[in-house]
Amino acid sequence: MSIKVENITKTYGTQKALNNISFEVKKPEIVGFLGPNGAGKSTMMKILTTYINATNGKASVNGFNVNTQTRNVQQSVGYLPEHNPLYLELYIREYLNFNATIHKVSKTRVEEVITLTGLTPEAHKTIGQLSKGYRQRVGLANALLHNPDVLILDEPTTGLDPNQLVDIRNLIKTIGKEKTVFLSTHIMQEVEAMCDRVIIINKGEIVANKKLTELRENQSQIVIVEFDYRVEEAFLNKLPEVIKVENTHDFVYEITFSTTKDMRSYVFDFAHDNELKILQLNQKNASLESLFRELTKS
Length: 298
Ligand code: ADP
Ligand code: MG
What we know:
Blueprint: E1 3-12, E2 15-25, E3 30-34, H1 41-48, E4 56-61, E5 64-65, H2 70-76, E6 77-80, H3 92-102, H4 107-116, H5 132-144, E7 150-154, H6 162-175, E8 180-185, H7 188-194, E9 197-202, E10 205-211, H8 212-217, E11 221-227, H9 233-236, E12 242-249, E13 252-257, H10 264-273, E14 278-285, H11 287-295
Parallel strand pairs: 3-8, 3-9, 6-7, 7-8
Antiparallel strand pairs: 1-2, 1-4, 4-5, 9-10, 11-13, 11-14, 12-13
The site of adenosine-5'-diphosphate has 11 residues, from strand 2 and helix 1.
């Protein structure tokens, strides 16, 4: 078992950050830990990496208990913290060699992780001279130094520009072929782009735990329609396969359908039959997005 979390609760003073959560990651796979800001993602990751203790419950990594077998857990885990602390004045090799000494890892391994994370062309620079994307690579290289089985990456793609984003996603996907990757994000597209499975957390509680293939099979769609006048939600609910109707603003409605078949023509005919004027009509496939929004509503 790569990661096992059983009934973990964490309170900071009176603030409950995690409320009795349980989940497992069994085999090498890339699992997304998705939730809005403040959901408890970083807290969970700090517990799994032995940086903080849970208030209640049990967790293990690679079969090692995070409370009683901290050294073994640390050897099993590579961690990229949310605000990755890097020494800007150090050269990439200096920084990695320094950490290699701490981990008792050979200098050849430093060269290996430099190659693996695509740092070679920048390896002569100081960390301060690197773009955010390359700094994340240094963080990943550092997390990989001791060749851990499990990687815990806290928001690894947040703050990257679109090109850097694609590069780091690909790098994580490559790493995920051999290792268990548990990564957090507050952006569902990141999960869609990288992950085999998603665990959604909201206000310290797990609200979904699903394979991406499962989610894609059950795709839904949202049709966004603007009328020239107010329409009762109950009226729009008469459309076939409707899950939900939401009046987002003015006379604009978002209608969620439980089918992948394009429902715009139904909405159009419906409007025509009922003498409603349509000013705007759009459609998007939105299984994960709508699920995420639905599950993390306050
Ligand atoms: P996320 O990473 O999902 O944004 P966090 O795990 O950082 O969420 O935080 C979860 C909740 O716990 C938030 O409400 C946050 O304000 C609170 N929290 C996190 N760290 C501390 C701390 N050291 N002391 C007090 N409250 C904290
Ligand atoms: Mg966080």
